[in-house]
User: Fold this.
Amino acid sequence: MTGEPAVPETALGLVAQAGGLVPRGTRVEVFNRIYWVFLILGTLVGIVVISYMLWKAYKYRDTGERPAEDEDEDDDRPTLGELPTGSGGGKKLFLSFALSTIIVVSLILWTYGTLLYVEGKTTQDSADQIEVTVEGYQFGWRFIYPNGHRSTTLRVPEDKTVKLKVTSTDVFHNFGIPELKVKSDAIPGQETETWFVAEETGNYTAKCYELCGSGHSYMQADVIVMEQSEYQDWYSQTTPAPEENDSGPESGEGESTETGGESE
Amino acid sequence: MTDDTPDDGSIETDGGHATEELPAGEDHDDHGLPPMSSVKRWFLTTNHKDIGILYIGTALFFLVFGGILALLMRIQLWAPRAPGEGLLGPLAYNQAVSAHGLLMVFWFISPFAFGFANYVVPLQIGAKDLAFPRLNALSYWLYLFSGLLFGVSFFQKATFSGGWTMYAPLNIPAYTPEVGATTAILALVMFVASVTVSSVNFLTTMHRWRAEDLRLRDLPLFSSSILLTVWMMLFAFAALLAALIVLSADRLLGTTYFVTQEGGSLLWAHLFWFFGHPEVYIVFFPALGVMAEVFQTFTGKRIVGRKWFVAAMVLVALQSFVVWMHHMFLTAINLQIKTLFMATTIGISLPFDLMVFALIYTLIKGRIRFTTPFLFSFGALLLFIIGGITGVFLGAVVLDYEFRGTYWVVAHFHYVMVGGATALFGALYYWYPKITGKMYDEFLGKVHFALYFVGFNLLYFPMFLAWQTPRRVFDYNPAYTPWHRLATIGGFILAVSFLVMFYNLYRSLQTGADADDNPWEYSSTAEWAISSPPPLENFPGLPSYKGGKLNFVSKVTGGATDGGEVTDGGTAVATAAGAGHGTAAATAHEEEHASHASFWPFLLSLAGFLTFVGVSGINKGGLYTPLAAVGGLGVAGSLVGMAREPFTVPSPELAEKWPFDGVEDMKLGMWIFLASDVVLFGAFIGSYLFMRVAEGWRNWHHLIPADHVVMPGLINTYLLLTSSFAVVLAMVAAERGSNKGVVASLVATLALGIGFLINKGIEWQHLFHVHSEAFPEGWELSTNIASSTFYLTTGLHGAHVIVGLLITLYMIPRAWRGAYSGNDKPIEYFGLYWHFVDIVWLFLFPLFYIL
Ligand code: HEM
Ligand SMILES: [Cu+2]
Ligand SMILES: [Cu+2]
Assistant:
């Protein structure tokens, strides 16, 4: 991987990054690690809390008995027209509150280290990466390479950091490749940056994640991850001219009024 | 704002008798209000309980409306679809998604909660009604007609199809050209009007109409939750209103905020989410209040850590305004801001943990009865826990990057929002006996719950499993087909559960057993201390918490009401339990008679509806223009009619009013309204600054012609300041009882205000028609972003001036007839407004003329 992550900007980050606990690597790896930790912990907490709640509700169900000797406790029940007050149990309340706070805050802090890492990579430049501009339009994606080559299919080499500059020529879209766990808003007049690394060659699909009009459901593009040498060969043959025949069977195409063209 | 104080002196009396004793449904004269069986009553009523019922019924109608759209979507999602396949075409699907979201969030959930708030809050705080009953009716009718307006949009080619978040620039006519899309946005504007009126009303009431010794912190939890909700609504909806006004101007007047490449799209996101995040809590808080209330009653235990529960709610309400950018983690905002908003987001989730634990611990040592309302509240808590845990995932920014725009989000917010709605359905059963005087069928209630709970989880849980499906699409990875099918099946089970509910509600009304005043053991709030249904004016005497417990005092000790108050010897004090009937007669003719009927709110809203339908297609000409004109006339006429109608609202003398003891209802109402107006203008000014920074602060000057000079603005500053002074003079004259002085000062105000408008008109005309090299076509609204912000912001201010002048115009003849001599209050209220308009100008002038 390229270089060190960006210097953490805050003490929080430092703490979180200590000890190599912080997930790094491709975005897929990062996501998977954090997601599974969250999922397991979340499921656990959910099961504990909900079971506890169900158990207590069952345990204290009203059996209809009104024990007479229990007069004292009966006095403690709410009565009509009283000024509202609370009942005790504050200690337990605060204990559980503190516990949940610790869990949530430490989880988030832990992921914050990764956030710094992910964000750091976006701003970093290195020779060993490629950069592609992504333009969303109703309803498709256009990929523009540094040499001016344009295509509606994204071809990238495997195992290399691919940096994307994402924008839109019309409405708000959102560019994402689910298998590669990369996503970024495509906003007209703005450029957002993100990156990914594809570890395996093959075909993937890029999709739109922001409602953008009638063709939104089909606003997809093919993503082809090639071996590095293969990619080099392909790239050296590309020309600045737009390449129209590469769009593949784009189902959305039939819907859209025009496929781009009028970008500045 | 209209005038609800009895300033015309012609108070209706109807030989007052003990109407309080009888259930409001009885067939006799309720202070000029026809009986409940009469259709006419429902158009006339200003009574909070009637209006509560109207709200609840109407909200349920919109639930069905939005629900049918949801079912259509679920049918479409039965399988991944190629274009044109299935029930809905692509555009139809987008309309269904958008309309479903808008209807459920705006026209169902909140109004449903506010139906209960309308009915129950005055009872819980010991008020006879809301502080401004006619405005309450107005809120309702504006709400209903805004919903109907939304319905109309479906018949104007297509309704809005850009999602409930209405992102720019998809929301402008270049991309959504249909007239119906404009109508939907105007419907939202009308809805916001309803919300604002209602917020002012609730806040005034809850701050000034509480029973004696019922301190703010003693409010029952349902009322507390509503109070905080309303505060949030007041400010959040003002921001939404700003966004909607700008959007309407872009769509109808050709301003260019959202088409502007630099910043237009992000401006919308900021404005919308500044509203949108508090909205999440606005939707959820009432449900939380219901849960707390229902838990206390059916566990027979007071809530654990009540103080902390309330503190947590206050904290959330405040914090809700500083988390909005967590909806924008994938835009180009920088790391520092992301970090900040990640922190506030986590911060705001923590108080909810506390509230959840408080509810759970309340179960312990309880005497829990699994009635239908409790089942729904308990279920709601369970669903909310799942929604909350899945929300923590979204708080981790790295995960949010991947969840954004997927079904994870869809599943999460349905668990939270529909989870909240679950508690509200519990509320429906909880208060059904109070509202109707009949018991619902417990067995059918439980059947409803069982179907509902199973259907709910079948519907939404699979969405977590199919979370990689992008939102708002109907073509998805076939691998997820089974999950989506399960969800569709769940959706239909959920729908069936509501058939059971409607049947139950309807049948029980016909054949249900009569409900006791207090059908629930261990209930504690005041609504259970009076009959079911409660009498028109709620209480058998004046409610008071003196001595730490609810009493009804039958003698008015305050004494300052100007009506004929009759004391009938002796202070009969009844304790709460069983007071419902016995002592009512004692208070029969205690005070001047409150009015309960007005036709104007309905007419005003109807006219507003017609106006908006006309305006939606005003650029298309045809019938639209005359319709807008007719509607506009109707609005003006209804406003005058409403202002002239004698309508008595006796403000309670013996009431807890902290912290607003020193001000009257009208004045407080005006303050609150102006507070929301501050946010409105703040959002406009913020938008201007945002767009200017995006454009480049200095570059801005290239967008403005040299003819745009300081002078007209300066003259207008002087004119307005002088006019403010004239209003002060009018007040002084009124105090001294000089009719002529009042008239002269008001005429001066009017003249200065008209001078302001004329000056502005000349300035605008000149700018429209400049012919410079840079602006050969003139400098119009649509010329560029600088002209758009200039005309729209100062135009909004100009509209405020016009409203002020219309009020002046209305006041002058009344002043001539001596209405204000010795009573300068109305002039003072008007003055507050007018000074505010002035102050706004003092901000606008430097921003738009000097900098
Ligand atoms: C209180 C009730 C409900 C509320 C407040 C609610 C709210 C929402 C909102 C805000 C959206 C987002 C709309 C958008 O993306 O613009 C939405 C989407 C959706 N809702 Fe609901 N909803 C409710 C009930 C239901 C029910 C009962 C169903 C199913 C029968 C349902 C199914 C859906 C579906 C399928 C979507 C589309 C998801 C997407 O593609 O983004 N909702 N809902
Ligand atoms: Cu899209
Ligand atoms: Cu939010």
About this structure: The pocket of copper (II) ion (ligand 3) is lined by residues B 277, 280, 323, 326-327 (CB under 6 Å). Chain A touches chain B through 86 residues (CB under 8 Å). The radius of gyration of chain A is 27 Å.
